[in-house]
């Protein structure tokens, strides 16, 4: 485990590291203690998901809000997935983090190149904090709605006044004692906090580590431009391109690590988000017609949270592809026609390999780009139109 963090790596990853550490998922965490920590978190999140699923399947004559159950189920499933996949691929993600540390602590990186790295680190930090703030707003609204509704829906357990559970559990925990009720109530508050952290942490980690990779591609482009300005290619042919080609191979490997760790997670996430946004969209229409502005605000905030999560994936994938392709254009735009023929031959082979851009896929089905987000929103609007017509009939 590398601990030689400087201000640059700390600025880019400190917020993400704190959230991942809580879950026991920070890739540089090693040892039995961290494994036990992850097992405890995994058990708590799994119990939360089972609680929500079992409650939704039980029938005890209690009225339920279908959209509320849908959004809560989506959050639990997403949090559960985020707990599993980063743990499975922790070694590969550790390679990426160690590479980022080496990039920041390298004494050979010029000051102007560090400015480029800092710009991408700033983007990752800004989006991470924005994602966490919006997620926290959604969580606060959820707990607030539960506590406000409890004023009118109190129950009596062992001659003591009791509120409804934080998570839907009326049927599942029917008939429990008051002491058990208090323990379950506190446990569900903790479970809700863990779901919030798991939703924000892994998405933000994916975005931050991908942004750093984009910064390294930008640096590689600058280095290629500087090398192509040299005219004495014959003299330095043996090593003039070798370090850059080696670096590009390293970046390809780092991209594969991110792809392996997140592609299934991204696919499941985008599929579920499409359905939940569609359901929330029709819920907004119904809440507006009923003048239920409390539910309206909750759904608007939740939709914003889902859109931000979609933006994290699609924007990062699109920038990664663009920065990878820009190296080819930069080489072609150089004065290659003034270089020695043997140097031009090397450039041709380099460009042939770089014509295949670095990309992140969703379950190997499609690549992430900005058009992916627009396609998701178009599909969601189609669902909303269909559901609206169905409800009106």
TrEMBL record:
User: Where in or outside the cell?
Assistant: Cell membrane
- Can you supply a Gene Ontology BP term from the record? signal transduction
Q: How does it sit in the membrane?
A: Multi-pass membrane protein
Q: What is its main location?
A: membrane
Per the record, the domain of life is: Eukaryota
User: Pfam families given for it?
Assistant: 7tm_6 (PF02949)
Record field: transmembrane: 31-54, 126-148, 266-289
Which GO terms fall under molecular function for this chain's record?
odorant binding; olfactory receptor activity
Keywords from the named record: Cell membrane, Membrane, Olfaction, Receptor, Sensory transduction, Transducer, Transmembrane, Transmembrane helix
Q: Which GO terms describe its cellular component?
A: plasma membrane
Family, per entry: Belongs to the insect chemoreceptor superfamily. Heteromeric odorant receptor channel (TC 1.A.69) family.
Q: What is this protein called?
A: Odorant receptor
Q: Taxonomic lineage per UniProt?
A: Eukaryota, Metazoa, Ecdysozoa, Arthropoda, Hexapoda
């Amino acid at each position: 485990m590398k601990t030689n963090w400087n201000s640059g790596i700390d600025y880019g990853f400190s917020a993400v590291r704190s959230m991942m550490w809580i879950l026991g998922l920070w890739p540089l965490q090693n040892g039995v203690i961290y494994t036990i920590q992850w097992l405890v978190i995994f058990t708590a999140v799994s119990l939360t998901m089972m609680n929500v699923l079992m409650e939704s399947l039980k029938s005890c004559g209690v009225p339920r809000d279908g959209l509320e159950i849908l959004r809560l189920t989506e959050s639990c499933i997403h949090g559960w997935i985020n707990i599993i996949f980063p743990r499975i691929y922790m070694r590969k993600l550790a390679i990426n983090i160690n590479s980022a540390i080496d990039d920041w602590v390298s004494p050979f990186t010029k000051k102007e190149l560090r400015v480029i790295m800092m710009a991408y680190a700033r983007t990752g930090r800004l989006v991470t904090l924005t994602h966490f703030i919006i997620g926290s707003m959604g969580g606060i609204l959820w707990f607030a709605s539960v506590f406000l509704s409890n004023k009118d829906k109190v129950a009596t357990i062992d001659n003591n006044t009791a509120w409804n559970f934080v998570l839907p559990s009326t049927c599942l925990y029917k008939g429990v004692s008051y002491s058990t009720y208090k323990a379950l109530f506190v446990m569900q508050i903790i479970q809700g906090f863990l779901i919030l952290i798991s939703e924000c942490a892994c998405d933000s980690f994916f975005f931050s580590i991908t942004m750093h990779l984009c910064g390294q591609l930008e640096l590689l482009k600058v280095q290629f431009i500087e090398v192509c300005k040299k005219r004495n290619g014959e003299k330095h042919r043996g090593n003039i391109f070798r370090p850059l080609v080696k670096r590009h191979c390293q970046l390809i490997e780092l991209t594969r690590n991110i792809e392996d760790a997140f592609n299934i997670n991204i696919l499941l996430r985008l599929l579920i988000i499409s359905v939940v946004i569609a359901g929330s969209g029709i819920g907004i229409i119904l809440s507006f017609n009923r003048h239920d502005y409390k539910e309206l605000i909750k759904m608007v905030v939740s939709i914003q949270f889902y859109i931000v999560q979609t933006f994290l994936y699609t924007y990062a994938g699109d920038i990664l592809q663009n920065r990878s392709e820009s190296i080819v254009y930069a080489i072609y735009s150089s004065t290659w026609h003034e270089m020695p023929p043997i140097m031009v031959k090397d450039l041709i082979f380099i460009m042939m390999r770089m014509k295949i851009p670095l990309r992140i896929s969703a379950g190997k089905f499609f690549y992430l780009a900005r058009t992916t987000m627009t396609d998701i929103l178009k599909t969601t609007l189609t669902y909303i139109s269909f559901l609206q017509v169905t409800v009106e009939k």
